[in-house]
Amino acid sequence: MVENQYGDDGMKAGRCPNRAESPPLDDKSKSLVLINYFRTPPLKLVTCTDHSKALINMLQTCHNAAGNRWANFVTVDYYKRSDGGGSFQAVDTLNGRLLCGCNDVHACLPGSTPQACSA
What we know:
Elements: E1 2-3, E2 33-36, H1 47-50, H2 53-65, E3 73-75, H3 86-100
Parallel strand pairs: 1-2, 2-3
Helix pairs in contact: 2-3
């Protein structure tokens, strides 16, 4: 498994630094990708903002850093707190990308229209 840096250093927009104890993110000999996305120390009051668009943007940034591989796991604090879809929407996005290349897993359902997939 490979993973990005946890804590504040791993939450900087546009960057997905490698965790020092992990093999490089783009090491494709490792089949699993873990994305850490939580503050050090955890701050419950700002987690709603963290789990909004910024989380999904980080997943895209880390996808690129991991050799165009989507995360298999995402770690967050206070997963139920968000503005919008939050960590649940992020997981739906990842599953959609992994299953059918769409931005939402619900677009992968049989009978979904091509317009439902906005990849």
